[in-house]
Amino acid sequence: MKRLLMFCTMSAMMLHAEGGVLDVQWPAVDKNQAKMQKAYPLVLKEKIKEVTLPVYLPSTYIYNQKMTIVAEPNYYSITIYLDKARLLVTGDRTYQQSVKVADQAFKTMMKSDTIAFEVAEGMLITDFNRHGVNYTLMLECDEPESDERCQEESFLRRTIYDQLTLVGGKR
Amino acid sequence: MKHLIATMTILLLLGGCAQKQEVNEALAQFTYSDPGVLVPSNSGKGRVGDEYIYMPDIRFPIEVAPAYLNSQVYGVGGMHGAAGSLCDDRNYQYPWHDNYCESRAWGMPLCPAGKGHQGVDIRGATCEKNRYYTVAVENGTITYIGSYSVSLRGESGTTYRYLHLDPKSLQVRVGQKVKRGDRIGLMSDNMGNTKTSIHLHFDVQQTIKVNGVSKKVFVPPYSSLVEAYKRLLQGNP
Lengths: 171, 237
Prior knowledge:
The complex is a heterodimer of chains A (about 170) and B (about 240).
Chain A: H1 2-12, E1 15-16, E2 20-21, H2 31-37, H3 42-47, E3 55-58, E4 67-72, E5 75-82, E6 85-92, E7 94-95, E8 97-99, H4 104-111, E9 118-120, E10 123-130, E11 133-141, H5 154-160, E12 164-168
Antiparallel strand pairs in A: 1-8, 2-7, 3-12, 4-5, 5-6, 6-11, 9-10, 10-11
Chain B: H1 2-29, E1 68-69, E2 119-123, E3 133-135, E4 140-145, E5 149-154, E6 159-163, E7 177-178, E8 183-186, E9 188-191, E10 194-210, E11 213-218, H2 222-233
Antiparallel strand pairs in B: 1-2, 2-10, 3-8, 4-5, 4-7, 5-6, 6-10, 9-10, 10-11
């Protein structure tokens, strides 16, 4: 009976595999930021110029020459190579599923506006929504069980998340 | 000449029949528990009833069958499993058991307990390290390579993560476009400087929009993998 009820609930949530592009609520233009962009590494300036969502990077690493960028109009991922660790910053304007009638799990998930920094599979990861689009920060250490950066949230929260700076994006 | 053609036709037909019989046998042998049913039952609270295919038509992430989707932690030789070797035969047999919501310390909003595993663990045909290739499940781009993880962003916008691959075996680089079925790397026990059991941890992130609000989450991959595995067994991956 319990399983039947659960099944009915799941059926009622009506997931649809209809993807699309999310609307961006662009932040106001900051003239100082625009000036600073001129000094960014060429790889950063060139790769993100067609990205149609706000591009964020932690301020400490903006001028880092050693970064790998994969960019598409609705998505970017930037890998920054740290000592014995890699930081991945992604921004994504797309969605893959839509739910018309949400089940309890989806409702709870959407209500939560706290940002969780969690260690999962030895990596520290956080996802958050800003300007209507979704961002992920992921830190992977070579020594996941002994490297404090991958065990405690402070590095990812204070040095990365709290220092995120808007570095570009095509309005 | 006529005899030769007739003989060849008969041989081809016999070959086709034998192949069809093999496929039927492989499919008949493949058994799996329902999505969300965790084994052993104390391994967590599964997302029972969610049979929705989040990733239709993906290629199974391991190149060849058989493969066994079951728990590492609660399997034989696992941290919370029965005593024995990780290579115990019981870990390498059907039925498959979902482990997407298996107990973990980290948050998983789609799991009934609010915590879960993010993805599923899959073993290869045998307990051999660096023998079985993982492959791209969808056309896409390799967006990240870490010390023990590889991320593929499919053309659908879905992100697939492959964990514990042997870094020396990787066939891809960051930014490379891959086609569905292209080799990524060999399944191993790599987790940085620590070791895990020989398996592929495979997880899937999608953005879900609910009443105008969106969130990126790890979605349940089990039902999609069951369908993909059936296609692999049918010889039509």
